[in-house]
């Protein structure tokens, strides 16, 4: 058995053998930081991506939901991979391989035209539905407080300041739309000048502006031209000052805590920088 497929559970291997008999492993795309296995395989001249979650995985179910309910505006244009097989119970899915070069780490990462296309694609996703949630902000605040209660390396004095700020926030109703949840160049591909999208494990109903969170602290911070191009493609700026600040703080806490738990020191340092930026902006 291929050592990559050996990382799958017996049930997952059974499904892969049924769905793609005699498939050959071509490349392991797994990160290694989390328990998700992502492997490129070939069978009968076609290429596929097999994505399988570990026992504690909560992403495969969300990814399957996105494929089945929200991705048609992209898949209908060839801008996202097509789902071939999936099992939420077994935490595994198979999609057609989407051709392209990953934007992250390439010259495309600094191309305003790529960011403009990314804005256009995101607008298609967000436009599909909108619901009002009275308790979204309260629940998100509780998640941030729980992260502060858990393991991290945020200084105690900073934790106290964050708790004080969160305690003073309003919790107004929020408008939620389908969001990607990790919208940034590491999940964009370019093929023959056209941008497409992968990885929907964090897809969920959230405020539209939450999909700008990763870009704002990385790409937009690096080059304002990318922000201008992205918003030109998207059509408007969805960020309202108060809600955007609250989201930035939550993202900063979540980044620092999550990165510490998985041992990603570079990303953890980014989280600490994000926290410092947020507190500075709030005048704390």
* Sequence of strands across the biggest β-sheet: 1-2-3-5-4
Which CATH class of the largest domain? Answer: Alpha Beta
SSE-based structural type = alpha+beta
Number of domains in the coordinates? Answer: 2
Return the string of H and E elements.
Answer: HEEEHHEEEHEHHEEEEHHHHH
Report the biggest beta sheet as strand number plus sense, adding barrel if it closes.
5 strands, antiparallel
Tally of alpha and pi helices: 11
Question: What's a concise summary of this model?
Answer:
By secondary structure, this protein is α+β, with helices and mostly antiparallel strands. It is 44% helix and 18% strand. The strands form 3 sheets. It has a 5-stranded antiparallel beta sheet with strand order 1-2-3-5-4, with helices on both faces. A 3-stranded antiparallel beta sheet has the order 6-9-10.
Task: Give a description of the structure.
- It comes from Pseudosporangium ferrugineum.
- There is one protein chain.
- With 284 residues, the protein is an alpha+beta fold.
- It folds into 2 domains: 94 residues, Phosphorylase Kinase, domain 1 (2-Layer Sandwich); 181 residues, Aminoglycoside 3'-phosphotransferase, Chain: A, domain 2, CATH 3.90.1200.
- Helix content is 44%, strand content 18%.
- It is built from 11 helices and 11 strands.
- It starts with 9 loop residues before the first helix and ends with a helix.
- 37% of the residues are buried.
For this entry, give a set of tags.
about 280 residues; alpha+beta; Phosphorylase Kinase, domain 1; Aminoglycoside 3'-phosphotransferase, Chain: A, domain 2; 2 domains; 5-stranded antiparallel sheet; 3-stranded antiparallel sheet; 11 helices; about 45% helix; about 20% strand; globular
């Amino acid at each position: 058995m291929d050592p990559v497929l050996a990382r799958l559970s017996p049930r997952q291997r059974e499904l892969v053998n049924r769905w793609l008999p005699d498939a050959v492993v071509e490349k392991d795309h797994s990160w290694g930081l989390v328990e998700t296995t992502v492997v490129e395989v070939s069978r009968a001249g076609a290429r596929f991506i097999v994505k399988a979650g570990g026992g504690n995985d909560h992403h495969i179910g969300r990814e399957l939901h996105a494929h089945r309910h929200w991705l048609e505006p992209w898949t209908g244009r060839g801008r996202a991979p097509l789902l071939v097989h999936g099992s939420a119970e077994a935490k595994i899915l198979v999609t057609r391989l989407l051709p392209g070069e990953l934007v992250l780490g390439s010259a495309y990462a600094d191309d305003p035209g790529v960011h403009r296309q990314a804005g256009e694609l995101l607008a298609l996703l967000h436009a599909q539905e909108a619901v009002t949630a009275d308790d979204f902000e309260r629940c998100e605040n509780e998640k941030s407080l729980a992260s502060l209660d858990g393991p991290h390396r945020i200084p105690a004095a900073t934790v106290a300041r964050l708790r004080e700020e969160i305690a003073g926030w309003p919790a107004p109703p929020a408008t939620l739309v389908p969001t990607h949840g990790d919208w940034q160049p590491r999940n964009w591909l370019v093929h023959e000048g056209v941008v497409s999208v992968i990885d929907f494990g964090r897809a969920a109903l959230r405020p539209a502006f939450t999909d700008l969170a990763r870009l704002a602290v990385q790409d937009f911070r690096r080059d304002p031209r990318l922000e201008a191009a992205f918003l030109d493609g998207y059509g408007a700026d969805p960020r309202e000052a108060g809600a955007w600040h609250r989201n930035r703080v939550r993202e900063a806490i979540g980044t620092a805590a999550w990165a510490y738990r998985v041992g990603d020191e570079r990303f953890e340092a980014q989280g600490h920088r994000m926290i410092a930026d947020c507190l500075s902006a709030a005048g704390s």
